[in-house]
Amino acid sequence: MKKGLLLFFLISCSWFLKAQDNVIDEIVWVVGDDAILRSDVESQRLYLLNAGERLEGDPYCFIPEQMAIQKLYLNQAKIDSVDVPESQVIQSVDQWINSVIGQIGSKEKVEEYFNKKLSQIKDEKIEMIREQQIVQEMQRKLVGQIKLTPAEVRKYYNQLPQDSLPNIPTTVEVQIITIEPKIPFEETDAIKARLRQFTEDVNNGKYEFSTLARLYSQDPGSAARGGELGFMTKAMLQPEFANVAFNLKDSKHISQIVQTEYGYHIIQLIEKRGDRLNCRHILLKPEVSETELEAATARMDSIYNNLKEDKFTFEEAATFLSYDKDTRNNKGLMVNDNYESSNASTPRFEMHELPQEVGKVVYNMKVGEISKPFRMVNKMQKEVVAIVKLRARTEAHKANLTDDYQALKSIVEEKKKEELLNDWIRKQQKSTYVRISEGWKNCDFRFPGWVKE
Fold this sequence. Notes:
Structural class: alpha+beta
Largest sheet: 4 strands, antiparallel
Distance between the termini: 29 Å
Strand content: 5-15%
Number of strands: 12
Low-confidence stretches: 1-23
Oligomer: single chain
Order of helices and strands: HEEHHHHHHEEHHHEEEHHEHEEEHE
Number of helices: 14
Mean pLDDT: 88
Strand order of the largest sheet: 8-4-10-9
């Protein structure tokens, strides 16, 4: 099912490539009331080729079939009045636009690349993202809630030949304690003074806010765009940042200095749209000196020695001493945010999913062992001192019911979803008008019912 969704996404983005002037256009498929053009197929073929995607067989068979399947879903969505919130679509478009600007370098370069104004690009992308999300919502409705019994999972497992059992990679469960170096008042005062100077320079017309952001902001995601974040809701921003940004009234006023976990910011409003806001910001982070890092390491050494002497447990230290807010209320246990499953989040990590510094330390550790203090960069891009405990390790193995029930259950769920959707497509083929031009029929289609005798 994931593969299918990826293909629908790619199809909806076929306009990403510039139109090919030498393509003679014609209608090659008709599905219901919708036409598929030769230029649509060619643009998608070039997009997939450019993206390095492997195609299953002849692209002039595979691509139009995927487009036809998408049209079946969209037609059913109209009948069933399946839609998606406009705010959800716009949020996805804004995220896409921000990502493209980050990759290409600036708003001006994006407009030059597509030979269109950014507003035109957004308008075109909105409809394509909307279709993609409607297809996904329609699939969810058709599939419904898959409920599996343990007996069904066992049956699937028992029917699989041993050489077909999925391989489960090595996974670990890790607890962590971190300490952040203390930042001298002189350092924070110096940062605030620089930000106040930036505000004065903008207010006096000496520099544009966007120019200062490009030159000095330490937010790598937005600095290249002149500090622009794109449209976001309050929930998408740090609370302290959101409270100030959403109270800005016009673009002429620059906010007071705002402190978040990332550092210190000043903010300039660009535009408000309902519950969403687009703004620029400049982020400066305190510099941590070697002296402060050594002092933090000394504090962590003391904690490490107390743990070795059993003066308190790792869980107690994580709860009361750790600076890591994401884990301290969970007795230091790290949770895998990258885990893709219909089940709840998991503490299991494959080695490559761990932060690099943690992975290096954990690699040769034994279960129950506590590491010596080491330095790492956390997700806020701050340098901290950490120690970790390896709570559990499961070595790579062939899947079995005892250790891997949830993984096997997820596999069976995906197979059931795919079977349900495939059956639905075959049923729709019988009741939907489909016409394929000569020269486009001689294909080994995944669903042969397109060509009616």
